[in-house]
Amino acid sequence: MALFGRASLGLLGLFFMAGAILLMFLTLLGGTSNHNPLNQIYFLQADTSRIPGAPATSRWTFWNICSVKNGRSDCGEVHPDFPLDPPGKNNFDTTQGVPAGFIGTNHYYLTSRFMFPFIIIALFFAVVSLFTGLLSICTRLGGYISGFLAWLALCFQTLTTCLMTAVYVQGRDRFNANNQRGRLGVKAFAFMWTATVCLFLSCLMYCLGGALGRKETGYSGRKERRRGFFSSARSNSVKSQKQERTYQEPSYA
């Protein structure tokens, strides 16, 4: 029974882990291709028509700034770890038409740059946990190892998602405050938060599978063996004392 439950929990952990990895990869690769669905995944869309040399509407991804054609991203050359920094040389390299909240600060640049290495680390631990998760189906140790790796992936994925939410929500508000309509990329945010939840559930399933059947195979057997040893020793001593009293004859003065 415990083996069947461990296998079921291990399979559930694998299912949630595979789903998280898929969503994370889709978000990471958004903007690298102009084909569906990658041309619909972005973090922030804003009106940049007032900025010289910028598209009328711009979308920020992990790799570039994309223009918009027929509601789809039209992306060019890719650059890994692309930041949100409208006045910087990585983006538009001008302050003209850029909301004042972006000027004179490195907050948006640094926060958005940390997202990329964190999601790469999260994906590494998630993929390793996916492979070790095969062991969680049949062994307790495999469940604990997979749960630990899933927990590490969850930590870095949570950091990435929180940084993404903070920096791009603030960026959207800066554009809206300057009468330049900005909105968040629904798919990217939905994918990242859903992946975070899936990693949590996967970690939970792995750990539950590892803990299942622990009492049946753990210390209870040793306790019974120890109890049996001492009880038998005690019973032997009691028997010997009774025998001595039985064979001892009373003496009369």
TrEMBL record:
GO terms of biological process kind: cortical actin cytoskeleton organization; endocytosis; fungal-type cell wall organization; septin cytoskeleton organization
UniProt key word Membrane: yes
Regions that span the bilayer: 7-29, 114-136, 148-169, 189-213
Source superkingdom: Eukaryota
Keywords: Membrane, Transmembrane, Transmembrane helix
Keyword presence, GTP-binding: no
Pfam families according to UniProt: SUR7 (PF06687)
Stretch list, region Disordered: 220-253
GO CC terms in record: cell cortex; membrane raft; plasma membrane
Name of the protein in question: Actin cortical patch SUR7/pH-response regulator PalI
